[in-house]
Amino acid sequence: MTVQREAAAGNGARVVPDATVARLAVYLRVLTGLGEDATTTVSSEELAAATGVNSAKLRKDLSFLGSYGIRGVGYDVATLAEQISRVLGLTVHRNVALVGVGNLGQALAGYAGFASRGFRIAALIDADPGRVGTTVHGVTVRDLTDLEHVVADEKITIAVLTTPAPVAQEVCDRLVAAGVTSILNFAPVVLSVPHHVDVRKVDLAAELQILSFHENRKNGALIV
Amino acid sequence: MTVQREAAAGNGARVVPDATVARLAVYLRVLTGLGEDATTTVSSEELAAATGVNSAKLRKDLSFLGSYGIRGVGYDVATLAEQISRVLGLTVHRNVALVGVGNLGQALAGYAGFASRGFRIAALIDADPGRVGTTVHGVTVRDLTDLEHVVADEKITIAVLTTPAPVAQEVCDRLVAAGVTSILNFAPVVLSVPHHVDVRKVDLAAELQILSFHENRKNGALIV
DNA sequence: CACGATTTGGGAAACCATTCACAAGCGCGT
DNA sequence: ACGCGCTTGTGAATGGTTTCCCAAATCGTG
Question: What residues does B96 pair with on adjacent strands?
């Protein structure tokens, strides 16, 4: 989690806590669903129930965006969704590169959730000559040697890294040198990056291990 | 994050904080790597550097396991790995069921990181008749209607949920009724479960949105 | 227009996690 | 046997997050 809170500029600077940012995405998804049901307003209590948080926390989270609720009524679904989108920077379109078109890479390339939330997988990159040139979910796989060109041409600032662990750091360095400033890392490796680059790591095996810990606790959890 | 700290039993009860548990998995991976390099001891400073945390935090984390370091020397790699495995409950073998054998499900079924860390995908379950009966990464896909039998027969307590969102809650309910007590949820849905069941959610689109937020901040982040 | 029911926004307290700082313990060299 | 350098383990301080709680704002009704 190489995400430091940039000590807010000279203005009245509203700083949104990291914990809040992580939840905004969830609120937004639920709000989008409500919008499709033609629901026009929602109270913090209702939205909190739908997103699995407590309503005080939800209200505090939303208060960081500004004051968009109406006392005695609730929040306007459309307005709130719009404000969250704004804060999350989803109003501008973002092109994403995916490096490492293996099993997981291919699955992610086709993941509907990305496209439907405004992220376009604009480039697929792989080192395997057998894969280069093939088309996966409508996008042609480019060779790893072209990485720098692809990143520049497609104006890419966000990359998804699904390479094998041994090459992850090297590929990461090249992405950063080419101008990428955010990386979603699925390789089981701790990446080191300059301070201006954000990395988020998704560690699938670690997730299961955390569940295993809780399983262990539940079954007696004998303390030796 | 439906993971409440079960108010430790009557004994001297050492409670490992959630934040620490999440990092233990990372330490363990690095330790395993060191073990293969025939490194026998490691200092908190070295291990901290390799895992991207600060050394004080690492030492505090490890202190929850007990006192396995040697002052002036460091930690024995093998011993430490063993202790972490014990606390994470990785000493017992755990069978995992995966429900929803779509793109993502297939990729996860073949994910080497699961197998190499002691999690065996013991069952694949899907509702699509076209997929039932096929073999994916050596495991035969079973029909959703057999879910209860499969869970019971394979003594499964952990499930990975990669179904489409609309059926996730329903499948979840059946898993829980069948005896599953931990769920790793990839469906973009907030699951509701009884208090004795732990759910961890991996929200891929949310991860990109969080990166998007930080991108936004970096580029001026005009405050309107 | 006043009142009661409702719901937000946010100050303050409680809780949890991280970082600091250093005493205590260990091994090695002399 | 002793001192020195190194490293752990942990209290105390700090910083961040969640929860509590209630004044202020809004709506609908009489």
Answer: B121, B158
